[in-house]
Amino acid sequence: MPTVISFVNLKGGVGKTAISVNFAAFCGLKGLKTLLIDTDPQTNATFSCITVQRWKEHSREKGTIANLMGMRRHACPHGSQVNAAEIIINDVFKNVDLLPSHLDLYTIDLDLAGASFRETKLRRSLNNVLDSYQIVVCDCPPNLTIPTQNALAMSTHFAVPVSPDFLSAIGIGILLSRVRDFSAELQNNLEHVGIVLSRVGRPAKHRAEISEDLRVRFGDLVINSEIRERAAVSEAASQNQSIFSMTDREAKAEFESCSNEILERIGIEI
Questions:
Q1: What is the pLDDT confidence band of residue 168, given thresholds at 50, 70 and 90?
Q2: Over the chain, what is the mean pLDDT?
Q3: CB within 8 Å of 145: residues ≥ 6 apart
Q4: For the residues 192-207, what does the mean pLDDT come to?
Q5: Where does residue 108 rank: exposed (0-12), middle (13-18), buried (19+ CB within 10 A)?
Q6: Which residue of 23, 60, 191, 237 has the fewest CB atoms within a 10 Å radius of its CB?
């Protein structure tokens, strides 16, 4: 089985998608066969890799993660549940495949309210393909609803991206506690890789104080590398490329340093 890492936070706008997508791209560039799973109904990770038009066609003809989790059966071209191999889009980046998301996941908690083993649907649906990958990267929505639960249920590790602002920082303790309780219930011993400071903006006293407070409170759990807020990151996403295809050397260096540190903490040598 591959290493599976989920990037989670209870708040949006903290850089989860940028880190997930570019970490997956970095792994691929280093020769690791990688699967990027978009569990967020906003589909931002999906659209960071492929165009909206390609997504529409693929969703209609092949399906998305929503099909694997028991939704959209009425929309499947075969009239029944499809398998993961048909849904996965190959080579969105070098050595990186994509399991695309769908807006239908917004209502999945209602649609699967009475379903048995609903937290492990994704893991069970991917059993036949996971052995093809060395690392799996899950981009999660900003909550602990069924899509995030499914990602955590199949994960070996998780990381928490945080931006240095008050609202992003105050929920970390709650998140870590809830993830710990959830993994205990599923008897899945999740390893916390660390906290990633991302979307770091212009120097300001309050941001510096928040960053310092996080490093004091969580110590070595806070990853040394930081990801600054840069236009190149959003430009890369808009062009369906990773940051490593852009010309901003500082941005590439930051993501490379952060990705290296995450891999080191996971225990993967490249």
A1: low
A2: 90
A3: 108, 109
A4: 79
A5: buried
A6: 60
